[in-house]
């Protein structure tokens, strides 16, 4: 997955926006003001911080040692840093991004979730 593909996929979700609250180099992808992905898109290797169910996070770290690690500068229980340089299948990376978005949406207030359901 290229940086452009990562950005495009993150922005493909309903109400997703890209923001730069930390620095112009760090892309923060949010839904209704809540972070679901963070990446320095010019980094090599390309990595993304993604929210994850705590039990799933542990399993993924075991199965993909070195490629999925506890979230850098994030709550290590709920966030993983995923290396997006081609070693992990793109399908898995897309699934992890979608899961992160879904977890964040699930934690939104009901009114915000309802807004996302509207066309």
From TrEMBL:
<dbReference type="InterPro" id="IPR058532">
    <property type="entry name" value="YjbR/MT2646/Rv2570-like"/>
</dbReference>
<dbReference type="Pfam" id="PF04237">
    <property type="entry name" value="YjbR"/>
</dbReference>
<protein>
    <submittedName>
        <fullName>DNA-binding protein</fullName>
    </submittedName>
</protein>
<dbReference type="GO" id="GO:0003677">
    <property type="term" value="F:DNA binding"/>
</dbReference>
<dbReference type="InterPro" id="IPR038056">
    <property type="entry name" value="YjbR-like_sf"/>
</dbReference>
<dbReference type="InterPro" id="IPR007351">
    <property type="entry name" value="YjbR"/>
</dbReference>
<keyword id="KW-0238">DNA-binding</keyword>
């Amino acid at each position: 997955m290229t940086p452009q593909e990562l950005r495009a996929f993150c922005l493909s979700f309903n109400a997703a926006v890209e923001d730069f609250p930390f620095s112009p180099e760090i892309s923060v992808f949010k839904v209704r003001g809540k972070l679901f992905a963070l990446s320095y898109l010019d980094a090599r290797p390309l990595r993304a911080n993604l929210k994850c169910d705590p039990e799933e996070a542990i399993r993924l770290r075991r199965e993909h040692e070195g490629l999925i690690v506890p979230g850098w500068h994030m709550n290590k229980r709920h966030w993983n840093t995923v290396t997006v340089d081609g070693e992990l299948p793109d399908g898995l990376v897309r699934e992890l991004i979608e899961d992160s978005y879904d977890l964040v949406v699930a934690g939104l207030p009901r009114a915000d979730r309802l807004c996302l359901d509207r066309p």
